[in-house]
Amino acid sequence: MAGLINEEDLATVRERSRIDEVVGTYVTLRRAGGGSLTGLCPFHDEKTPSFHVTPARGFYHCFGCGEGGDVIAFVQKINNVSFAEAVEYLADRVGIQLRYSDGGGQRMEPGLRLRVLEANQQAAEYFAGQLIGSAGLAGRQFLDSRGFDKVVAEQFGIGFAPTGGRDLGQHLKAKGFTDDELVKAGLIRENGWDFFQGRVLWPIRDAGRSVLGFGARRIFEDDRMPAKYLNTPETIVYKKSNVLYGLDLARQSIARKSQAVVVEGYTDVMACHLAGVDTAVASCGTAFGDDHARLLQRMLGTGDVAGGEVIFTFDGDAAGQAAALKVFKGDQNFLAQTYVAVEPTGLDPCDLRIQQGDAALRELVGRRVPLYRFVMRNVLAGYDLDRVDGRLAALRAAAPLVSSIRDNSLVPGYLRELSQLLGMDPEEVRREVKVTVQRRGRPAERKPDHDEALPGMPEPKASLPVPDPTDRRLEAERGTLRLLIRAPETFTADWNGLSADDFTHPAYRALYESVLATGDGPGIWTQRVLQANPDPVLEQLVVSLAVEPVLRTPTEAYSREYSSQVRLLALARQIAQLKSRLQRTNPLEDQPAYDRMFATLVNLEKQRRELLAVAAGPAA
Ligand SMILES: [Zn+2]
Q: Does domain 244-377 have CATH number 3.40.1360.10?
């Protein structure tokens, strides 16, 4: 950390920083009489100016919101930076090399930062002039094809780097810049050639509108640089992880609306601003990273973690989903504020504006959903949530996402959300996530579980799994089959109304289907059952059932108790499944389907109550 700023230097910075110039980069000021200037306050929303700057006294004051102070206070407030940072910013601006009371570590060579900024500014003006001139035809054609005319190009300061190879270098050296300064600015290469040649250029500025560097797009087939986009290399002022294209344009709206929209390209930023989404920015030549997030956070400037939205626009495709997941796994400090706006057609904002107009872009942003919901939905989309095993597998896939959330205060909300998306009991979801946390670090083990076998599941006839005879959850099914094998005469003609779907274990289900398939034929009952479905596992099962002890003498009532248990459990599953679907169905979207499901649910509940009356009888 730097030490205390030298008093003398501080005074000089104050003296030389003209408040009307500094404020003027953020607010359009007009003369108001009495030596005062006025404009729209950058710190509160207003339609008529109540923000005043008095250059003679070096102060600003807003009669609307009461904000006021000197030039340093203004820089602190507008950029959300510390006192020292504000002083450094202003010192750079007016060309003062600050001294610190205790050394303050390594300082940059005097004035280089400012020289680089100045060279960039001159370069931007030169490039803009080239775009309008005869050399810039190809650049203008490119912009035209993106729906941007001359006025727009001017508004965004777009330029064109000529193909000559040394034009910019010669232009700037004639203005007094040295080779060394231009190399350090990233404007020319060590060998003296211009860094950008034959490309359309976007000036990348900071919030104070200083040009930090450029983004450049290839437009000629024979461009010697392979990359479609080329950016200023890292320089004393251009750090790609710390710059956002459009920040100078979006700065005030971001602060005012407590919202920032992150898009992917320069033309996307332009399209957004032209469409009224004036909070759009883009990272330049690199993925949106943690530093970008912090930069935006400072600009959102609410200072309140709960406030502010950062909205990412992604393609709905796999790449977009991966990008979203990456943001999710990045700096989670802003997770609660991070949103995703997905364009289902896959069009980027620039193309969307060309094809569907400005309103479509505003709607895209309006459709934003919280990032974690987007990520979770993507994970769950790969599973069949109509099936118990599908829901369970989806839960297991999503659990690591929830358990990776570091902010504990967010977890309960996300658990609720996940259980809603799955249509599962929140408590069950919470348990599974807890298990995932405990399991973390070890490879996920996934042992087959007959619980996942389900009605409607394709029957693996060749190799039926052997059911565990001591499994208490399957006791009703096994007991019912035991009675069916031992005392079929105690069942009604329709086997007490049982159906194959009532049996969850594939072997039990297969055995019941064999029973259904028998009919009144000759021969021993168990042999007839086995003939209907010859399978080694079934044969073994029938033998086991035939010798297992039956606690009471089989009677019709006893058989009905067992079969009712099986029916009740099956009904409970169906009801849970239907409730889960109802939870996931928006009645506003499909009222008839919702009503049908609801009617079925009522019917199932009625059957369940009737069965309960039977099953309530004295058990074995
Ligand atoms: Zn104000």
A: yes
- Residue 456, Ramachandran bin (φ over 0: left; ψ between -120 and 50: alpha; else beta): left
For residue range 589-601, list pLDDT tens digits in order: 778 888 888 888 8
CATH of domain 464-620: 1.10.860
168 to 22, 171, 179: CA distances (angstroms): 29, 5, 12
Q: Is 112-238 a domain of CATH 3.90.980.10?
A: yes
Task: Kindly give the distance from the C-alpha atom of residue 52 to the centroid of ligand 1, in angstroms, as a whole number.
Answer: 9
Distance 10 CA to ligand 1 centre (A): 27
Expressed in angstroms and rounded, the spacing between residue 68 Cα and the centre of ligand 1 is 9
Q: Does the domain made of 7-94 have the CATH classification 3.90.580.10?
A: yes
Which residues have their alpha-adjacent CB atom under 5 A from ion ligand 1? 41, 43-44, 62, 64-65
What is the tens place of the pLDDT at every residue in 241-255?
Answer: 889 999 989 988 887
Domain boundaries, the chain: 7-94, 112-238, 244-377, 382-440, 464-620
pTM (whole model) above 0.70: no
From ligand 1's centre to the CA of 64, what distance in Å?
5
The Å distance, Cα 520 to ligand 1 centre, comes to 92
Among candidate residues 350, 338, 395, 347, the one with its CA nearest the CA of residue 143? 350
